[in-house]
Amino acid sequence: MAAVTGLGVFVALAWPIWAQRAAAPLASAAKPGAVAPALPPAPLPPALFPLRGETGRPLRMFALPSLNALFDGAKPGAEPPPWYHPSGVKTQATQAERLVAQLAKPWRTRAQLQRLAQEPPPPGPVRFQVVGDAEPGRFFFSRWLFNVPGVFERQLAAAQARGGDFVIQLGDMVSRGVALQYRGLLGLLERVGAARPYLTVLGNHDRRSPHGASDSRLYQALFGPPSYWFERGNVRFVVVDSSAGRMTPLQLRWLDRALDTERTKIVFTHMPPIQLRAWTGGVAGFAVGAREFAELVERRGVSRVYVGHVHALDTVVHRGVRYVLSGGGGSPLFPSAVKRRFHHTLEVEVDGAQVRETVHPLLGRPFAL
Ligand SMILES: [Fe+2]
């Protein structure tokens, strides 16, 4: 009885603190803000709530279905409603997180897409650059054994110099999605510059903890929703989040709507579906929703799915859809089952329904994939 009473007193005392934490916004920068008229269509919010472990460890008790889930029923291109919050659960940010979110302002997906929308597409094929995994390794010994410092910066600069419509990074920009590491990344991006709009895909390392219970709220405060789509010429590009090692029914429904177009369709996601065993070994890919994802991109007639996560280069046709693995953006070339392991980036041209990739190795001449 005494224990029950004690618990009641504890809850009564603690509740105002919890409620305050839950109500405080992550950062003013995390608010989606108004969509500029020059940006048709608006990037969509993520369709990923509720997800077990999506909130940070200290707030797991608040991992309740978010109001965001209601917005998942909205049409592609619709504006987020006023109550929409990209993290799903409002939490207090540290001073360092607020600062890095402010510094990231020019790099937000919305800002980069606005730049792109303001430029009329040049005549001819749609052209873009793909840069794969960049994080240097989470542990000292793996960095020491396998990492070559500076490769990502060199390759990103080369990709920016090649031009095209935009540059997209396939996820794992940092080893852990914490303020200090993102601060370093933003410094690198400032040094390289963004001659062309720079877009991101959320990787597992870009979450707070790459392999454990984790959240992506800092990434979202910096860059925005991890699932979004946009169009260029006759191509619809769809970025969908697989960073938590799964694709939920909500995400798949969102993806289905995002792929509902007659245009040529290109998908970017960080992890390959796990059934591509030649790459994943049955481990290094997203498992939940993988079969449904493969069926969906087949049914929607997707021309390409670009993935990273495995630090290598390869292609495979699965259920009639061509998947391209490009994980050589600068991360350590860990031993894996995939033979072609070298640092590289891709240049892609989409001409009608035709998609052509040119591989740009860090060392050596470019070649057609
Ligand atoms: Fe990864």
What keyword list fits this structure?
369 residues, alpha/beta, Purple Acid Phosphatase, chain A, domain 2, 6-stranded mixed β-sheet, 11 helices, binds fe (ii) ion
Number of strands: 12
SS element count, helices: 11
Q: Which word captures the global form?
A: globular
> Could you give the distance between the termini?
71 Å
Beta-sheet strand percentage?
15-25%
CATH architecture: 4-Layer Sandwich
**Associated small molecules:** fe (ii) ion
Mean pLDDT: 77
Q: How many whole angstroms does the radius of gyration measure?
A: 20 Å
The helix content, as a percent range, equals 25-40%
Structural class computed from helices and strand pairing = alpha/beta
Overall tally of structural domains: 1
CATH fold annotation: Purple Acid Phosphatase, chain A, domain 2
Q: Identify low-pLDDT runs.
A: 1-90
Report strand order across the widest sheet. Answer: 3-2-1-10-11-12
Describe this structure in words.
The protein has helices spanning about 1-25, 70, 95-105, 110-120, 140-145, 150-160, 180-190, 215-220, 250-260, 275-280, 290-300, and strands at about 125-130, 165-170, 200, 230, 235-240, 265-270, 305, 315-320, 320-325, 345-350, 355-360, 365-369. The chain is an alpha/beta fold. It has one domain (about 105-369): Purple Acid Phosphatase, chain A, domain 2 (4-Layer Sandwich). The chain has a six-stranded mixed sheet with strand order 3-2-1-10-11-12. The chain has a six-stranded mixed sheet with strand order 4-5-6-7-9-8. Helix 3 packs parallel to helix 7. The protein is globular, with a radius of gyration of 20 Å. The N and C termini lie far apart (about 70 Å). Bound molecules: fe (ii) ion (FE2). Fe (ii) ion binds next to loops.
